[in-house]
Design goal:
Aspartate Aminotransferase, domain 1, Aspartate Aminotransferase, domain 2, 2 domains, 7-stranded mixed β-sheet, 12 helices, 13 strands, about 15% strand, globular
Length: about 350
């Protein structure tokens, strides 16, 4: 395994000495509502299609995504998860100097290193809420070919204020840099997306995912939103059939299921607030405010590290995300997915025994 990620159930279950289905997984930030019944029905209905090749360009999904976001199909590029697009971007754009805002998803750095980019790193300050500080950041954009950040941040869960993000987009545009904003978790705060600003920033790329907020990680459904010219350039580097028949059907059904979307936008913030309150009551965790379906916490006891706590909780058949591998964080940080209240209660009980 080259990079550390959450949700590696097989490996975690082996470490816990149980089968994967007996593990309570807080390491992967997947919508706690689970699979939408409408999506499950669409997958079942699409099963006969697996004996045929899928649409090479996922045209039906592309049109559904364009309609959902109020964009033209030429501004949408579906893919096999947003991770495929991260690697596609680095191949198609071949950036030289590239800046990553950390903490960040490890695949940004991996893809850029593979493409031979000259990497630079901006570490976001926890005392500033893991939000970019423009006076410090903007001077660093000069001479950059590519700038990558996530909004909301993963693993911090922080949201960049729209004025700050627009100022960053404007500065990147003036510097001639492509700005890549990973919006994998923006569905919980859709109004914060930069999708309406694409017409003003021809070098802006938004990475989106249906796997997180629609609980489809096993099907790998992601997409990019950008100018038609940039999408066309990326498309030339993308192979056919990267979205399979079941993933396409599931994606279209997920976008149409407005009732499910209303439920998770109502329930997940409520469950996250309850979870944060429960964690803070221990007095041994600094829990950072978040807008997504996960919480970042710092362990305040200098004698306790994230790897040790992770091992203790695995003995309780509970998995958490050890954030040691995130640049700028280290072994004092953990990330916890928001799950249903009864599951969160089990983790809080286990933490009381383990802390």
């Amino acid at each position: 395994m080259r990079h550390a990620h959450g949700g590696d159930l097989r490996r975690l279950a082996m470490a816990a000495g149980v089968t994967p289905e007996r593990l309570l997984d807080f390491s992967a930030s997947i919508n706690p509502l689970g699979l939408s019944p409408a999506v499950e029905a669409a997958i079942t209905e699409a099963l006969p299609a697996v004996i045929h090749y899928p649409d090479p360009e996922a045209a039906a999904l592309r049109e559904a995504l364009a309609s959902y976001h109020g964009l033209s199909p030429e501004q949408v590029l579906p893919a096999n998860g947003s991770t495929e697009l991260i690697y596609l971007l680095t191949r198609a754009l071949a950036p030289g100097r590239s800046l990553i805002l950390h903490p960040a998803f490890s695949e940004y750095e991996a893809a850029l290193e593979l493409a031979g980019a000259r990497l630079e790193h901006e570490l976001l300050d926890e005392d500033h809420g893991f939000v970019p500080e423009l006076p410090r950041l903007l001077p660093r954009l000069a001479g950059q070919d590519l700038v990558v950040l996530a909004n909301p941040n993963n693993p911090a869960g922080s949201l960049i204020p729209k004025p700050t993000l627009l100022a960053l987009a404007e500065a990147a545009h003036e510097a001639g840099a492509t700005l890549v904003v990973d919006e994998a978790f923006i569905d919980f705060v859709e109004e914060a997306s930069l999708k309406k600003e694409l017409a003003h920033f021809p070098r802006l790329v938004l990475l989106r995912s249906l796997t997180k907020c629609f609980a489809l990680p096993g099907l790998r459904v992601g997409y990019a939103l950008a100018s038609a010219e940039l999408v066309a350039r990326l498309s030339r580097w993308k192979g056919p059939w990267s979205v399979n028949a079941l993933a396409g059907a599931a994606g279209i059904a997920a976008l149409a299921d407005r009732e499910y979307q209303e439920r998770f936008r109502l329930l997940v913030p409520r469950w996250r607030e309850e979870f944060q309150g429960g964690l803070q009551r221990f007095g041994q965790l600094r829990v950072f405010p978040a807008v997504a379906n996960y919480l970042l916490a710092r362990l305040l006891d200098p004698g306790l590290s994230a790897p040790v706590l992770k091992a203790r909780l695995l003995r309780e058949r509970i998995a958490i995300r050890d954030c040691t591998s995130f640049r700028g964080l280290g072994p004092a940080f953990i990330r916890l997915a928001v799950r249903r209240p009864e599951e969160q209660a089990l983790l809080l009980e286990a933490l009381e025994r383990c802390l």
